[in-house]
Amino acid sequence: MRVIGIDPGLRRLGWGIIAVAGSRLVHVASGTCLPVGASLAERLLSLHGLLSGVVRAHAPEAAAVEATFVNRDGAGTLKLGQARGIALLVPAQAGLEVAEYAPNAVKKAVVGVGHADKTQVAHMVRHLLPGADPAGADAADALAVAICHAFHMQSAGRLAAALAGARA
Q: What is the per-residue pLDDT across 95-119, written as a single tens digit (0 to 9) for each?
């Protein structure tokens, strides 16, 4: 199964795709969408087109997006929320169910510490995905989101199997 992780951003949107086979995780591709345009509407349209191209090219079967945290800059948070809307919309348009994870949950799943810094996240992404060399923190964060979702899917699968076994 292919999983796309998305780290939303209005200036830089990170994306990462992994293949999940049992407990094995493999890096497929990763990168950063850099939207263009003078107005917010133009940048959002550009972001939609760029991310749609990634989804078409790599055909993921599951998607996960990092949730936005609210900071002191309300206007900045609102703009980030609009980019996050595109990050949720594009996989949904492709027929994918989209999971959402808080930044601390992603860091805890990948690093083991909910307040890890970006260098720790990137290091663990490279460790968990041998051969992966994400270009920048946004792509590494997106791969971390995909890894977090893969771990959650594996846990859910084990739980479902245990419940089915208990009923039998």
A: 999 999 999 999 999 998 788 888 8
Among the options 7, 42, 73, 117, which is catalytic?
7
Under 8 Å between Cβ of 5 and 64: yes
Report the distance separating Cα 134 and Cα 32, nearest Å: 9
Of the candidates 49, 38, 153, the one whose C-alpha atom is nearest the C-alpha of residue 161 is 153
Contacts of 106 (CB under 8 A, 6+ apart): 66, 121, 141, 144, 145, 148
* pLDDT interval class at 2 (50, 70, 90): very high
Does the annotation mark 66 as catalytic?
yes
- The pTM of this model reads 0.89
- Per-residue pLDDT tens digits for 57-72: 999 999 999 997 666 7
State yes or no: is 138 an active-site residue: yes
Has 73 been annotated as catalytic?
Answer: no
Strands 62-66 and 98-101: parallel
Given the residues 42, 66, 73, 133, the one annotated as active site: 66
- Residue 34, classed as helix, strand or coil, is coil
Mean pLDDT of 20-31: 92
Dihedral sign computed on CA atoms, order 68, 137, 41, 59 = negative
Q: Which of 61, 73, 133, 138 is catalytic?
A: 138
